[in-house]
Design brief:
- The protein has about 220 residues and is mainly α.
- It has a domain at about 75-215.
- It is about 80% helix and about 0% strand.
- It is built from eight helices and no strands.
- It has helices at about 1-20, 25-30, 35-60, 75-100, 110-140, 145-155, 165-185, 185-215.
- Helix 3 (about 35-60) runs parallel beside helix 5 (about 110-140) and helix 4 runs parallel beside helix 8 (about 185-215).
- The protein starts with a helix and ends with a helix.
Length: about 220
């Protein structure tokens, strides 16, 4: 029940931000929404994830090692390659979006606050989906059904993203679940997700700012 409420609240926050045209940073960069609303969505998500992680830790103290760092593993080199590929993918996507959309000034202070909140959000996001939700499902069903349910819910909360992003959630969600299970740690999934998201958003923000300045001069 607690986890269902967490997911419902997260989905509601996504719907609310989308209704205000403030669902993603690209919306703000194109002058469609407000950073404050986007930050509000992140804060609500952070609160939801903290509740979910606290709930998990109170029930499954013996499985808390999933939150421990995985410093050494036979799959570590593979994860490093995936992390680099994720960073390059995010950078390329941001460059494409920057060239296809009109420049718009981004408030530097609100942007820094957003990026800091986004990092916290993504760390807790993976803790919730790839640690809490995945390992609770593993207590109830076999590995493949647990991954399928996890990826389905992960894709559901992206229902207001564009079609390309929604489709991308499926293989990316599977990848993060498998990486977590191979390491029995959520940290590889966190690092990969951060590499993808932050390379995209930092590149997008910096390109928007420089593009805006060049249009002014």
């Amino acid at each position: 029940m607690i986890l269902s409420l967490c997911i419902a609240t997260l989905l509601f926050a996504e719907i609310w931000a989308a209704s205000k045209k403030s669902h993603r940073l690209i919306d703000i960069a194109n002058g469609k929404g407000k950073v404050a609303i986007l930050n509000g969505k992140l804060l609500s998500g952070i609160a939801v994830f903290v509740i979910g992680c606290r709930y998990y830790s109170s029930l499954h103290e013996s499985n808390m090692q999933v939150f421990d760092p995985a410093w050494s593993n036979e799959w570590s080199l593979t994860c490093l390659v995936i992390t680099i590929a994720a960073g390059m993918t995010g950078y390329k996507a941001a460059r494409n979006n920057s060239s296809n959309n009109l420049p718009y000034s981004l408030n530097a202070f609100l942007l820094v606050i957003y990026l800091l909140l986004r990092i916290v959000f993504l760390v807790l996001y993976e803790c919730f989906f790839r640690a809490v939700l995945l390992f609770i499902l593993l207590n109830e069903v076999e590995v493949m059904p647990a991954i399928l349910i996890n990826v389905t819910l992960y894709t559901l909360v992206h229902c207001y993203s564009n079609r390309k992003e929604i489709i991308g959630c499926i293989p990316f969600g599977f990848l993060l679940c498998i990486v977590t299970l191979l390491h029995h740690s959520v940290w590889p999934a966190i690092i990969i997700h951060l590499a993808l998201a932050m390379s995209y958003e930092i590149t997008l923000a910096s390109n928007k700012q420089s593009s805006f300045k060049s249009h002014q001069t």
